Amino acid sequence: MRRPDLDPFLPELALNAKSAAIRACAVDLLLNGRAQWANGYKRVWVNKVYGISRREPDLEQRPLTIAVDIHEHMDAASKDRSAQVRRIAASVLTQQFDNRQPWHAEIAARLKDDKNPSVASRMDFYFRKQAMAGP
Predict the structure, then answer these.
(1) Cβ neighbours for 134, distance < 8 A, ≥ 6 positions apart
(2) How many angstroms separate the CA atoms of 78 and 113, rounded?
(3) End-to-end CA distance of the chain
(4) 92/77 Cα distance (integer angstroms)
(5) Contact 88, 77 (CB under 8 A)
(6) Closest among 83, 70, 67 to 118, alpha carbons compared
(7) Nearest to residue 77, comparing CAs of 36, 19, 116, 31?
(8) What pLDDT does residue 24 have?
């Protein structure tokens, strides 16, 4: 994903790829609007005085070069047969909580009673956050 050569094919991969992992990767890229990859590791100091540090991945990213209809892809991801793809849709709903759109309620209601525990727990968090924020 370092180069934008695959960007035009992402919508097709998100909808029709045979592999759930490929669909999930494409949906993640489309809904977040950026490509991200590991570029080695970097040292992050925990306590410089005592010489304590840890290694973290050095991530690079770039924006996608195509226009994306978030509503269309979020709707398709929430109906996908793979929990891996539905989990990404639930995570993006939670991440975009402060920028809610009217159609978010329909997708949240669809994912609320998902049979997969990881999707259901994300939606439980979403609805608890919504209850605390008010209407």
Answers:
(1) none
(2) 12
(3) 39
(4) 11
(5) yes
(6) 83
(7) 31
(8) 97
How far apart, in Å, are the Cα atoms of 17 and each of 11, 14, 27, 45, 81? 10, 6, 11, 41, 12
pTM: 0.84
- The pLDDT confidence band at residue 112, using thresholds 50, 70 and 90, is very high
- Type of residue at 51: G
* Residues 7 and 66: beta-carbon distance below 8 Å: yes
Q: What Rg, from alpha-carbon coordinates, does the chain have? A: 17
Whether the Cβ atoms of residue 112 and residue 130 lie closer than 8 Å to each other: no
Compute φ and ψ for 49, nearest 5 degrees: -60, -40
Q: pLDDT, tens digit, for every residue of 46-77? A: 999 999 999 999 999 999 999 999 999 999 99
Backbone angles phi, psi at 82, to 5 degrees: -95, 130
Burial of 27 (0-12, 13-18, 19+ CB in 10 A): buried
Please say whether the beta carbons of 64 and 4 come within 8 A: yes
